[in-house]
Amino acid sequence: MKLDGKSAIITGAASGIGKDIALVFAREGARVAIADLNKDAADAAAKEIGAGRALGVAMDVTDEKAVNDGVAAVVAAFGGVDILVSNAGIQIVHPIEEFTYAEWKKLLAIHVDGAFLTTRACLPHMYRAGRGSIIYMGSVHSKEASVLKAPYVTAKHGLIGLAKVVAKEGAAHGVRANVICPGFVRTPLVEKQIPEQAKALGISEEDVIKKIMLKETVDGVAEVAVFLAAFPSSALTGQSLVVSHGWFMQ
Ligand code: NAD
């Protein structure tokens, strides 16, 4: 097993991509903390994985105290944290001129402030252990833009900057940081956008799927997370990897 003996915190892991990563990490031998705003769903996902291997943690990643307390609870339960997957995220779509300032700030807070707060809470434990792997859930939108997604594209580009700084600062302590950039994965986050984009663009929901999203689903994100988390040397750090079935190529 590739992650035997490792402990991981995965934010937003009660649903979608984060939950899949939690299941695959556990299958690879890791103990996983499922940190999510939705505690009931986090507990249900932890139960699915099994007692002793998984822990549901109530955490709003934009709340400094909740993040610090949650990470401390995981470290107390697991004895440390080897892997952080900063994955929690939302989507809000509007043309720029229709975005409220509150919506802009909410999206940036969850994606960017959440990544900073969870990173800051985990790093001292990783530095003490002399090892760690941080994975940020970026997107194809870390590298490309789409209409209607100004704060999301801004936030996802920003995560690459954060990962590069963590890679530089963490190098001396054996800590790596990388970004996974998935294409469309048909999770609740994406389901919600289909009618919203159809309305905003004046096209059918079917056309949103076919013409805007192109693919019904993308697998393999969790496997790439295992690859990055388990990578055996400090050489692979500060990178961002697109996982989109060739939907986007650099
Ligand atoms: P999802 O809606 O299925 O899951 C998101 C999870 O994050 C939910 O469990 C939700 O409760 C949690 N969450 C939301 N706000 C939170 C907060 N403040 N604190 C803690 N948890 C919070 O979404 P998903 O599609 O699995 O998305 C996961 C990540 O993958 C996001 O960062 C998203 O931007 C990214 N991503 C998704 C796709 C896609 O096509 N689905 C593509 C590229 C990147």
Describe the secondary-structure layout.
Blueprint: E1 7-11, H1 16-27, E2 31-36, H2 39-49, E3 54-58, H3 64-78, E4 83-86, H4 101-129, E5 132-137, H5 150-170, E6 175-182, H6 188-201, H7 205-213, H8 221-230, E7 240-243
Parallel strand pairs: 1-2, 1-4, 2-3, 4-5, 5-6, 6-7
Helix pairs in contact: 1-8, 3-4, 4-5, 6-7
What is this structure, in a nutshell?
Helix 3 runs parallel beside helix 4 (101-129), helix 4 (101-129) runs parallel beside helix 5 (150-170) and helix 6 (188-201) crosses helix 7 (205-213). The protein has helices spanning 16-27, 39-49, 64-78, 101-129, 150-170, 188-201, 205-213, 221-230, and strands at 7-11, 31-36, 54-58, 83-86, 132-137, 175-182, 240-243.
Describe this structure in words.
By secondary structure, the chain is of the alpha/beta class. It has 2 domains: 201 residues, NAD(P)-binding Rossmann-like Domain (Rossmann fold), CATH 3.40.50.720; 34 residues, no CATH class. It has 8 helices and 7 strands. β5, α5 and β6 form a beta-alpha-beta unit. α1 crosses α8. It is globular and about 50 Å long. The mean pLDDT is 94. Nicotinamide-adenine-dinucleotide (NAD) binds next to α1 and α6.
